[in-house]
Write a structure and sequence with these properties.
Blueprint (H helix, E strand, L loop, with lengths): L14 H19 L12 E6 L7 H12 L5 E5 L10 E2 L6 H4 L1 H9 L5 E3 L3 H11 L5 E5 L11 E7 L27 E5 L7 H11 L6 E9 L3 E2 L13 E6 L5 H10 L3 E5 L8 H12 L6 E6 H6 L12 E4 L1 E6 L2 H36 L8 E8 L5 E4 L7 E3 L12 E9 L6 E10 L4 E9 L2 E6 L8 E4 L11 E8 L8 E7 L5 H12 L8 H8 L7 H5 L9 E3 L10 E7 L5 E8 L10 H9 L3 E3 L2 E3 L4 H7 L10 E8 L5 E8 L2
Parallel strand pairs: 1-5, 1-6, 2-4, 2-5, 6-7, 7-8, 10-11, 10-12, 12-13, 17-19
Antiparallel strand pairs: 3-4, 8-14, 9-13, 15-16, 15-18, 16-17, 18-19, 20-21, 20-23, 21-22, 23-24, 25-26, 26-27, 27-30, 28-29, 30-31
Helix pairs in contact: 12-14
Length: 673
């Protein structure tokens, strides 16, 4: 029988889809169980906090509990997916980070534990090496909501299940709330039944234990929710919650039922504005909250919200000044067996993880030493090559003369991007084969510096998310460099600065593509993908602008003047840059003098100027069906060095004589006419 608490009448109609969903997750788990899909482990303790259902089991309070429990013993970091954030890929929380960048739950950890490294990344396999690169002192990582992410193998799995909706009584999405197989509970070392009523008896606890049927060595604990005193949203001053106070509860969490029960016990009346889980509050939502609060007639009244909701309301901090908006903290309260839980994880389980870590480190150091003894390149030899980053985030450097590429883990890219020419240091041979493992030491030359993507505005800055099938970090954009772009605009951004010590690259918006059609954006994307920038630097444009339009008289005196000879261009009439031309005249001896002319670009390019360097990097103009991406700014390519009709131009020329049979009789050579 399905519990009426989770199986609503309309959801039974979705039962066929639940069977399809069950089949999909069953196949996926089977492939992992049979090692067709691989799970990878890392050389440090990983603790996974997760559940089998969608939300509402108290994962965030459990992560916070573990942080408080272990922060005196380990250098801890947390890694979450960052659900409903507006960014993609790996990100590490910093002083200016917001919930839009990393998600509400990681932002909650960041605010409550400001010295703790808090990272997000959809692919934990990719994010963990990057986190360890950014915070090499990390000794233990808590993986938030990663129980289904089997690509990474945690040393300790803590599985949470809600007392009012045990996974044993649930069913699969979309009919029920389960997102993983019920049998997956066997992979957990610890199961915590959360949100229990305070009066739970020993017999009821045993009944639940028998229903779950723990496997050998599996520990089961029971917790209730312990609410602390609310603190003010802006001043953070705590205030005891009085039973006489009228409360407007504002929440957007998966399961507000325990919170409502607490208010019903302590308050005669309260009102509630309920939003969807992880709801991103808008200005209209804020106005609704203030309007609803204003309708409460009592003089002693407050707005109450959860810590998770508070980080999403932070954008209204200025508007909330002077408003009695309070935040209610919550913790897990262990029932009946609290001392046992504290003792077990902090001693037996975690000490075993550390022993395993030491074994792995010992084996790794032994392999390194053996490789050095055999004359390997473990000493750090530097090689020059090109970085190729796969969609999964792993990198390979192709080095001329090497039979195999050098493997680069995501945390060892330094500041390199896909296609860059780099210097790579060889660290060791990958075990079991000939593959070398390396770390990038220097970026010699960037393949591209301009990218197309979306702009996300924030307080005091913006960040740019590139549209690429290759992983790359988001680009930080100062407000003075957004050049009129707005939130969610599709833009072209140029990478301006990314030094080795900088955690994120900095750039500026070059142009907005939001109003351009698909063809326009696609063609620009092709150019950028192949490393051809769409614009010139301000320095190059300044050099070009200083070049005079009129040819000096002394320069004309140095050259052969053929302006009186019939000369025609070989470009179509609608061309803008007439690069080439031919001249012809009949000589007195009956032969013909033929001249082949090309614009003398070198006259306008002084060596080692910004313009010369940029032209060298571009190497050529690129022609597409409806446009040209020039090697030089338009002032030069379309005017000074375009052989336009009835205008004096400087050229390089090859001149020769032929007879009536087109036989070459004399070659004058390549000259400046």
């Amino acid at each position: 029988m399905f519990s009426s608490l989770f199986l609503k009448s309309f959801r039974i109609l979705l039962f066929p889809f639940s069977l399809l969903y069950w089949l999909g997750i069953a196949v996926r788990n089977f492939l992992y169980d049979k090692h067709v899909l691989k799970s990878s482990s890392f050389g440090l303790p990983l603790i996974c906090v997760g559940n089998l259902s969608v939300g509402g089991t108290g994962k965030s309070p459990m992560v916070e509990y573990l942080i408080r429990l272990l922060e005196s013993q380990y250098h801890i970091a947390t890694l979450s997916r960052g659900y409903k954030r507006k960014t993609k890929g790996y990100a590490l929380a910093g002083p200016d980070t917001t919930a839009l960048e990393i998600g509400d739950e990681p932002m909650q950890f960041h605010q409550k534990f400001p010295d703790l490294p808090v990272a997000v990344g959809e692919e934990r396999m990719v994010a963990i090496p990057q986190l360890l690169h950014d915070r090499p002192q990390t000794e233990l990582i808590i993986l938030d909501d990663a129980f289904q992410h089997r690509a990474v193998k945690a040393g300790l799995n803590i599985l949470l299940t809600d007392y009012s909706n045990l996974f044993t009584r649930d069913f699969y999405l979309p009919t029920g709330d389960l997102r993983d197989l019920k049998s997956s509970y066997k992979r957990a070392e610890i199961i915590v039944v959360t949100k229990c009523k305070n009066g739970i008896s020993v017999s009821e606890k045993e009944k639940i234990r028998n229903e779950i049927r723990p496997v050998n060595g599996q520990l089961i604990f029971f917790t209730g929710l312990e609410y602390g005193d609310p603190y003010h949203f802006t001043t953070r001053q705590p205030v005891p919650l009085q039973s006489e106070t009228d409360v407007l509860l504002v929440t957007g969490i998966a399961n507000p039922r325990p919170l409502k029960m607490m208010l019903e016990e302590k308050h005669k009346t309260y009102q509630m504005l309920q939003f969807p889980d992880h709801h991103i509050f808008t200005i209209d939502d804020w106005k609704d909250i203030i309007r609803k609060f204003g309708e409460i007639k009592a003089k002693d009244k407050i707005i109450l919200t959860t810590e998770k909701d508070a980080v999403r309301l932070d954008k209204f901090r200025q508007e909330a000044s002077g408003i009695p908006l309070y935040v209610l903290p919550v913790r897990h309260q262990f029932l009946l067996t609290k001392r046992q839980f504290l003792r077990k994880p902090s001693s037996d389980l975690f000490n075993n993880l550390n022993k395993e870590r030491k074994k792995k480190m010992g084996r790794k150091n032994s392999k390194k030493q053996k490789h050095r003894d055999k004359g390997g390149t473990g000493g750090g030899k530097l090689l020059r090559g090109v970085l190729d980053i796969t969609r999964s985030g792993t990198g390979f450097v192709t080095v001329e003369g090497l039979e195999t590429d050098v493997l680069i883990r995501p945390g060892d890219f330094n500041t390199a991007l896909h296609g860059d020419k780099v210097m790579v240091a060889i660290r060791e041979m990958k075990s079991g084969g000939r593959r070398m493992l390396g770390v990038i030491r220097e970026v010699l030359e960037r393949k591209r510096t301009e990218f197309i993507g979306k702009l996300q505005m924030n307080k005091g800055f913006a960040f740019f998310i590139a549209e690429m099938d290759k992983p790359m970090p988001d680009i930080y954009i100062p407000l003075e460099k957004i050049n009129g772009a707005k939130d969610d605009d599709r833009v072209v951004v140029k990478l301006m600065q990314w030094e080795g010590g900088d955690k994120r690259p900095m750039g500026e918006v070059l142009s907005v593509l939001a109003d351009e059609g698909g063809n326009e954006a696609a063609l620009k994307g092709i150019l950028l993908e192949e490393g051809f920038p769409l614009s010139f630097s301000e320095e190059a444009l300044e050099v070009a602008a200083r070049i005079p339009d009129i040819i000096p008289a002394d320069e004309i005196k140095k050259r052969k003047d053929i302006r009186d000879i019939l000369t025609i261009t070989i470009d179509p009439v609608d061309a803008k840059d007439f690069d080439d031309a031919i001249s012809i005249r009949k000589l007195k001896n009956g032969q013909y003098e033929i001249g082949v002319h090309i614009a003398d670009v070198s006259h306008y390019l002084e060596p080692d100027t910004d313009l010369d360097k940029e032209a060298y990097q571009r190497a050529t103009s690129v022609y597409l069906p409806d446009r040209v991406n020039p090697m030089l700014p338009e002032h030069i390519s379309n005017f000074l060095c375009s052989l336009r009709p009835k205008e004096d131009k400087l050229t390089f020329s090859a001149i020769f004589h032929i007879n009536a049979k087109a036989e070459i009789k004399r070659i004058i050579g390549s000259v400046k006419p």
